[in-house]
Amino acid sequence: EVQRLNQQLEEKNGEIQQMINQPPYEKEREILRLQKSLAEREKAQATSDVLCRSLTDETHQLQRKLASTAEMCQHLAKCLEEKQRKEKGNSDDQIPTERSNQVFLLLLYNEPSLQALICNLQDENRMLKQKVAHV
């Protein structure tokens, strides 16, 4: 292990000596190459940051939409229950409010169009994550 490390150290020392012995224009070229590489990485990082912010904003927007939809579903479930109570006039035969809300939400989330929307959003999210990883 020590011999291997010593060999690596010697290789690095050799590289340093080569850099020192290079003519000034070679050093300038290397500096420019490194600066260009740094600029490209900074640009890629900036693009990645923008995409991440965009994804974060979209995620928050979708969370707000979901919360709003869930609230509306609960409201509709309560309205439906009240309407059924009025029509039957007998609350003993009715499902309790909490239970009817759960049933209504299960029906809503099992609706094929909602499932398709969720799948589409998941696919879009996966594609955006791949784009971010690529950048």
From TrEMBL:
Q: Which GO terms describe its cellular component?
A: cytoplasm
| Sorted UniProt keywords | Coiled coil
In terms of superkingdom, the source organism counts as Eukaryota
Task: Give positions of region: Disordered.
Answer: 1-24
* Amino acid composition bias (Basic and acidic residues), ranges on this chain: 1-14
KW Translocase (keyword) present = no
- State the protein's name: TNIP2 protein
Organism of origin: Phaetusa simplex (large-billed tern)
Q: Which gene encodes it?
A: Tnip2
